[in-house]
Amino acid sequence: MERLLKTSLMKKLAPCLAGTDYDLLPVRGQDYGLCGPEANFSRTDARDPRQISLSMGSVGGSLSEDGSSFPLLAASKLGNFEAVARLLESGAAVGQTSPLTGRFPLQEAIAHGHERVVAQLLKHGADPRQQNEQTGEFPLVAAATGGHLAMVSLLLDANADPNAVARITCATPVMAAAVSGHTEVVRLLLRRGADPNHAVTGDLTLLMLASAQGHVDTVQALLEHKADVLRVDFNEVSALHLAAESGCGELVKVLLRAGGRPCDMQESGDFPLLQAARAGHAEVLQVLLSGGADANQIHQLTGEVPLVEAVEGGHLQAVAALLRGGAEPRTTHEEMGNFPLLAAARLGDMVAVELLLRAGAKAGQTSRFSGDCPLLAAAGGGHVEVARMLLQRGANPRSLSRQGLRPADVAQAAGHAALAKELQQAEGGERNQLPSLFAAGPLPKKVAFVQTIQQTILQL
């Protein structure tokens, strides 16, 4: 019966190997953590399936019971340099693959970041262009994905192809690095001949993928190597569209400096300013407006405008940025008839209402589609303070909806009896008798409320 040796090294390695056929790899007369190439493994202790016995005389390519591993693959995965060296010296096949997973020693060493083992395998003839037949992955793609600069350099020096395309994903090494934001790896691959304009399914380029992830330095590196900033995918989406959506102002600035066009539309009709407004990216809005974007550009298919989108999203910083950039506060959503003040009143957003009124919005503006006005919207939502502010700024308490309802009627129907009463009083009173922000409740409380709104606006 073979003697099972549990070395101190193997005890340390056991947690790393738990669940594999090489959890405890005993060595007869050799203490380098894994068996030599002549060893054969077979389970002997059903009570502890991690313990594997050793019999001598078989080849180093012997597979584990499930066919997923073999000695050189296991040693490479663990980064056991001494074991790898002995196995290679004894004639283990450096390019052997697992019939179950398609993985091979070089791939495992790279995936687990074992640089010395990678160098050793390459020295003994490992093919840097070997492809996993099941996943289609190349060693260089794996190294680039992990951001392993030294290993990428080793593979390139061994004649790995910087433009190799993975069979299934169509990824190239530089694409894998760009998506992950490994800028130095990207720079190295580009210097060694990688194509900066490679595209995958759907015409997605490296620049688009890096922009979508917000990797500023990576985008800069690609642009320095002549990546096409104006290239679009099959939906007419450019890198600038993706950057605007990502919310990174610095990235948008880089793309604009490289020639990105801030008003270009996608096939869907979206454009960078609208995307940033929807998402509430105030910094991106400021950069786009400074770079030539039109604050009043309209979605050609839906009629959407950035200011309405920002208000409806409750993005106060974005609202302020658009107004400072020249957005018209009375602009109307072409298809829906919605306009910024109507949207703000419907939401009961006091700060947005005040911002818009200060910028020139009219309290009595009416939707030409629905006939709604801000006061009717505030009444329906029970937004007392918004209704009072609108009355102060000239809203007509007798304005009628398309159904012939006045604001007081709308408030009453929605169950806002107190507001309905105030609006009824406003219908019959003089302008200087209308309810104001200070009309109800303890004066200190109302003063504090107004001061809070004013302070918020000053910060925008």
Average per-residue pLDDT, rounded, comes to 83
How many strands, which pairing sense, and closed or not: the largest β-sheet?
2 strands, antiparallel
Q: Spans of 5+ residues with little confidence (pLDDT < 50)?
A: 1-59, 429-447
Strand element count: 4
Tell me, what is the CATH class of the largest domain?
Answer: Mainly Alpha
Q: Taking Cα atoms only, what radius of gyration do you get, to the nearest Å?
A: 34 Å
Structural class call reads: mainly alpha
CATH superfamily grouping of the largest domain: Ankyrin repeat-containing domain
Assigned CATH architecture of the largest domain: Alpha Horseshoe
Question: Roughly what percent helix?
Answer: 40-55%
Strand order of the largest sheet: 1-2
Brief rundown of the structure:
The chain is mainly α. 46% of the residues lie in helices and 3% in strands.
What does this protein look like?
Keywords: ANK repeat, Repeat. ANK repeats lie at residues 101-133, 135-167, 169-201, 202-234, 235-259, 268-300, 302-334, 336-368, 370-402. The protein is mostly helical and 460 residues long. It has three domains: 1-126, Serine Threonine Protein Phosphatase 5, Tetratricopeptide repeat; 196-294, Serine Threonine Protein Phosphatase 5, Tetratricopeptide repeat (Alpha Horseshoe), CATH 1.25.40.20; 304-460, Serine Threonine Protein Phosphatase 5, Tetratricopeptide repeat. Helix content is 46%, strand content 3%. The chain has 24 helices and four strands. The strands form two sheets. Strands 1-2 form a two-stranded antiparallel sheet. A two-stranded antiparallel sheet has the order 3-4. A hairpin with a 3-residue loop joins strand 3 and strand 4. Helix 15 packs parallel to helix 17. The termini are far apart.
